[in-house]
Amino acid sequence: MVRTPQRTEQTVQAQVNGITLAYNDQGEGLPIIFLHAFPLNRTMWAEQESQLSSQFRVITVDLRGHGESDAPLWQYTLDQAAADVIGLLDHLSIRQAVFVGLSMGGYILFAVYRKYADRVKGLVLADTRAQADTAEGKEARFQMAQTAYKNGSSAIADLMIQKLLSPATVQTKPELVRRVRKMIEGNQISGIAGDLMAMAERPDSVTLLKEITCPTQIIVGEQDLPTPPADAKLMADHIPGACLTIIPRAAHLSNLEQPDLFNETICSFISNATR
Ligand code: MLT
Prior knowledge:
By secondary structure, the protein is of the alpha/beta class. It is built from twelve helices and nine strands. A nine-stranded mixed sheet has the order 1-2-3-5-4-6-7-8-9, with helices on both faces. α1 (46-52) packs across α12 (259-273) and α5 (153-164) packs across α7 (174-185). The protein is globular and about 50 Å long. The relative contact order is 0.15. Bound molecules: D-malate (MLT).
């Protein structure tokens, strides 16, 4: 199942659960693994990687179906994504890590916690929610998968960018908008449709929240529309001892829109959690 890592200049690859996963592994110390949003890839964490890897071991991974990882044409589930992440940690001989997941990455963290809680030293749940999809939400996922199939990933970028970034970012940061578009357009349709199915089928995690006993930080952009501050407050109210930070002037991709505030929140969370 596990092969020696193949280092290219930027990318390292591992064989995990029968597919190739691409990841970056930088820095030393406490391992932090970052799980990206739908339908992006691990480069959304570039600012976290560059700023945090002087203090921590920062691992970013292209989840199955994304970026430079394989995007097999078959069933996708969030449990499978969780097993891939744990397989990567096994590959790297990491027993415990702090896990940071944004949006879909957060949904995967609930699947990680359900099955592998002993691997979790701390959780950062960013711009995500514990509730399952509504019937309308599932129907919208189906429609988005049809759009991806008929019109390609650039049509998905057209739909998603307005949801992911604040209006101010869209107007004033064309470079960031281009970067997000490139990440979305770089994905294969098998991965996009696979994620949509996996997210539509995910279970409700609200009842799990009170069972989370590790240190937990919740982060949300104040203008996040897909997973608004009310969803973050619900998680903070139910997870014992969880901290909530609301990031100003950010929408759904709070780590990209306000990287300094996002990184400061992670650093102070880790310093309190490991005190
Ligand atoms: C994400 O950012 O991962 C998605 O917006 C999550 C979702 O569609 O529920």
